[in-house]
Design a protein that fits this description.
Blueprint (H helix, E strand, L loop, with lengths): L1 H32 L2 E13 L2 E12 L2 H21 L7 E10 L15 E11 L2 H10 L9 E4 L7 E3 L3 H26 L3 E10 L3 E4 L7 E15 L1
Length: 235
Amino acid sequence: MKNNKLLPAFLLAAGLIIGGYFIGNMHKTGKEYDRYVQVKGLSEREVKADLAVWPINAVLTGNDLKTLKNSIENQNDLVYKFFLDQGFSEEELTRGMVNITDARSNLYNNNQYAGFRYLSKSEFTVRTNDIKKLQNALSESLNLMSKGIVLGSKNEWRPIEYIFTGLNELKPSMIEEATTNARQVAEKFARDSDSEVGPIRVARQGQFSINDRDLNTPEIKIIRVVSTIDYQLVN
């Protein structure tokens, strides 16, 4: 009878001991898991733009719509031919709208057309992968002035938009480089704290950014990505 009473007590004590061990071990493991370092890894590339877009306005003024219409058609043909002569294909050239403004219909007009009633703007867009050819055409476009044609960039703050389209090809190697750089920083921190770098705890991939290298060379781009990684510290 006495043995029957001791057995439940023994089992209860054993359970408490085992439970205490696991609770203590979980607390120790949790403390070890809290030991980590968060680092950032950077990867940069300097690349050349592989696409250029030049939106253009060809401007004319006049007082007679019929005469202005003929002048617009003649001017636009000359502009189109100019770019063909510069080596552009028809696929690289797009003719846009012709916008005509009537100065007399503008209540706020302050005679900005210098005596001309109508102002027309013909839109053209040059889109090409040949950056050098476009830059040559930009210089040669001054020769159109001798024919009475005035070309202006539609976007004055950024006359030509330079674009890099090969980002997807660079992403894998840049992510690898950013991760490697982050690991090197983590290892340096671990050495200074008498620890070792363990597995990755959390990894956060930053967004890729593409910016002009500077204001004077927008055709050169800087691509950047920053990875933020938490590494477990051991020992």
